[in-house]
Design a protein that fits this description.
This protein has about 300 residues and is an alpha/beta fold. Helix content is about 20%, strand content about 15%.
Length: about 300
């Protein structure tokens, strides 16, 4: 599977790792490196982050943190992802219902969307994670379970729902980069730099149980998760929103290379912080919308 890459000339987007003692500060930047962030006029410096070859983000649905983390109904999450990866114990969605949260996670803004109605395909032109990746010469794809065909823009077909696929709202994201889960590669080296995986309305826990979604994560993505640990790659599992009963506190887990196993950070993070971190992990030198004033996820990297 080929992914379009746009190369741009000029100054490299990622700074070289700082290895000398910072005068007067006594800070040493290790092998993870420091990147300059370009989301605002006064460009801040991104936290020390790994430079993964691949990042896969999975978005599940409508469950609060305590419904999943620590639940006996989620043996894969709690037996593999939590002890082997990092848990963001104070991770929050930003609003209700589902669709605006997806746009916030993908583009740093709800884009004026306040409900789950179908959007006008390609009507938006603002920056987003996919357009930033393209502008920096890197690859992007989404894997959307039960989508009728590659790039199909249907609003709703059986267990498939367009409302969970914010990339269709943007004219600067090719619809041809929206695949079905049957296209998720078994040769993980062929994955794009960053990809989103969206299960169908049953396997994302929206219409079916926590146990159903947990089993789907194991059968569909554990192969990649285990491969990622030794192949400089990451898996991020998060939720769009909670069940409206927990202050929008949601599970967010990070698993793979450079993640301290069993780590847990109680720092408050939200969708904008996750997007900010994804942008910095990819080194795109840009931050879309409210991601510009967000922060990187820290305290979980080894």
């Amino acid at each position: 599977m080929a992914f379009a890459r746009l190369r741009t000339a000029g100054t490299p987007r990622r700074l070289r790792p700082i290895t000398a003692l910072a005068t007067g500060l006594g800070l040493v930047a290790g092998s993870l490196g420091l990147w300059a962030a370009g989301g605002s006029a006064s460009a801040d410096t991104a936290a020390a982050l790994p430079t993964p070859d691949h990042v896969v983000v999975v978005v599940m649905e409508n469950h609060a943190y305590n419904q999943v983390v620590g639940s006996s109904s989620a043996p894969y999450v709690n037996g593999t992802l939590v002890p082997g990866g990092a848990t963001l114990s104070q991770s929050y969605a930003l609003t209700h219902p589902s669709q605006p949260n997806y746009y916030m996670l993908f583009s740093g803004s709800s884009q004026g969307i306040t409900d789950d109605s179908c959007v006008d395909v390609g009507a938006l032109q603002g920056p987003n994670l996919a357009s930033e990746l393209a502008a920096s010469g890197q690859s992007w794809a989404s894997y959307n379970e039960a989508i009728p065909s590659v790039g199909a823009t249907d609003c709703r077909v059986d267990t498939y729902a367009q409302k969970h696929n914010p990339w269709f709202g943007f004219g600067n994201v090719p619809t041809s980069t929206a695949y079905g889960m049957d296209s998720f590669p078994t040769d993980y080296t062929t994955l794009p730099k960053v990809s989103f995986v969206v299960p169908d309305l049953c396997n994302d826990m929206h219409d079916c149980s926590v146990g159903t979604g947990d089993s789907w994560l194991q059968s569909s993505l554990d192969g990649y998760a285990q491969w990622a640990k030794s192949h400089n790659s990451l898996l991020v599992v998060t939720f769009d929103e909670d069940n409206r009963l927990a202050g929008n506190r949601i599970p967010t887990l990070v698993f793979g290379a450079h993640v301290a196993p069993g780590s847990n950070t109680s720092t408050h993070y939200n969708h904008y912080d996750v997007l900010h971190t994804l942008e910095d992990l990819a080194g795109v030198n840009a931050h879309a919308g409210n991601s510009a004033s967000a922060t990187d996820i820290t305290g979980i990297w080894n």
